[in-house]
Each structure stands twice: as C-alpha cells, then as structure tokens.
Amino acid sequence: MHDLANAVRWSPGIAADRRDRAVVALESSVLAQGLPIPANREAERRMREAVIAAGAMPAVLAVVRGVPMVGLEGDDLERFLRRDGVEKVSARDLGWAVARGLDGATTVAASLALCSAAGIDVFATGGIGGVHREPFDESADLIALSRSSVITVCAGAKSVLDLPATLERLESCGVAVIGFGTDEFPGFFTRHTGLPLAHSTSEPADIVRAFVAHRALGQPGALLVVQPPPAAHALDAALVEGAVQRALAAARTAGVSGSAVTPFLLSAVERETGGASLPANLALLEANANLAARIAVALREAG
Ligand code: PSU
Ligand code: MN
Asked: Cystine design at 233: which of 238, 241, 269, 283 (Cβ 3.0–4.6 Å)?
C-alpha cells in the first residue's frame, strides 16, 4: 500500500537536484487533452525552457501507468504527447487511475493534489477551470484551489467560462487572486475583462511575502497569480466572444457532457478563431511558466 511519503515518485533527474534548485510543477492535461498535436510538443518544450531560463527546474505532473509522478520524461512523455490511451484525470480520478495502472494526464485540480502530496509550492498552468456559462458545470479546479497551499500562476480562467461567476466562486473558496502586472482579471486569450481585482503587483517578492504570511496563518487555499497573455499574441475580445458563442452552440448540438466539455470547447474555439487562439495559448503558457519560475526562485531565496 502507498503511504503519503511514497505516494508520489520523483523522476531521478529532478530528485537529484531538488535540494539545490527551486521546482515548478506543470500540468499534463493541457498537453494530452488541451492542445492539438503537434502544438502540445511545442508547449512542453517552451514551458520547460522558460522555467530553466529563470533558474528553476520544471516538473510535469502525471499518473504514469498508475504511478503519480513528479517529472514526466522520455518514452512516458512521448506517449502522453501522442495521447496514446491517456485519460484526463481530475482530483476525483487520481485514486482510480492509480488502482487501475492508468496513464492519466492531470488537470489543475489533480496537479494541485500532487503538489500537496509532493511538497511543491509553485505551479504554472494556462488557464484554470471554473464556472461554465450553462448548463450547470463547475470545475473541480476551484475546490482544489481552496484546499491546496500552492502558488498557482495562470492567465485567468478559460474564455469559454462565466468569468464573473468564476471570480466570485474563487472568493467564496478563500482563494487569494493577485494580478501580476494588471489590476483586472485577465480573460485568458484577452488581456482585459473589466473585472477588478482586490490585489495587484509587479514584484515576485510581494507574492512570496504574501504566500509566507498566508501559510503562517494556516490559510489552506492557493494564491492564484494571474497575468494577462503577452500583448503580441493576445486576441481581440469581440473575436474571442464570437468564437466562444459558436463553440458553445456546437457543444449543445453535439450533446457533450462531463469531463469532455472543456476539451471540446477548447478545440472548437481554436477552430472558430481560425487557429489564432493557438499561438496565444502557447505564448501565455510560456510566460506563465517563466513567471512561476521567478517566483519559485524568490521563494527559495526567502528561505
Ligand atoms: N485551460 C486550457 N487548457 C486546458 C485546460 C484548461 O487552456 O487544457 C484543462 C486544465 O487541465 C484544467 C481543465 O484544469 O482543463 C479543466 O477541466 P474541467 O473544466 O473538466 O475541470
Ligand atoms: Mn465539469
């Protein structure tokens, strides 16, 4: 049986250096379900290089043939990039994936659970799941954020969601949302939503100080750091909204439900933006990985 200390296995390369270098966790569902082939390969490379460039170590989290891993590498990574029999694993699915010996690509919710089990403090992703527009559907990412004391860097919540409702739920869940270089909640593909944030900064040191205090006070939830997508790749709000409306209509017609909803909507948006959403997605993943690494290095230096 697994005990907690052995619940998660570290890949050898990362285990060897983890005492000397800050670690940034990355999710794997974005690679196996969120992005098309071959862009998923480019995303993995750009995130990895962005973390290394800022002086930290990247670690993709996943369940590999039933083993929760910190560091998805080599042939295992190749299988996930080919999405060869790889399932989408949210927090509720972790135990099942382990019991069945499955390959499971972890969402934000499942990745946060693995961060907690492994003692990793900083995690980067593209966009979190949240409250869907209709019919009722709320991502487990929100509950996981309320339970995981992890600095989570993202570009807000996916454009297909109800962003005001998502922000309200983050507040109810006790998740601190801090704008990095912005005082509004970013719209993932778009830089502006008009939704004001209570806190903002442009200094990683502020994030680190807030996190240290948050933890010292026993606050259980995440610190969600949100930054707008890079200006050169951000999309026009009206273009995105039109694409989202058409994607939502397509989802209704196809009758998609459950965990298939988010991957369906993401690929429909890509199609409906004529592919313009893809470079934006890759650019923001890279920028988030880089910011997470800067924060992780500062957190490590703070001791
Ligand atoms: N946002 C993206 N790409 C993604 C996801 C979100 O731009 O691939 C994934 C993340 O793994 C996120 C998950 O945690 O979708 C949310 O799925 P759901 O809504 O089923 O909880
Ligand atoms: Mn759902």
From this structure: 283
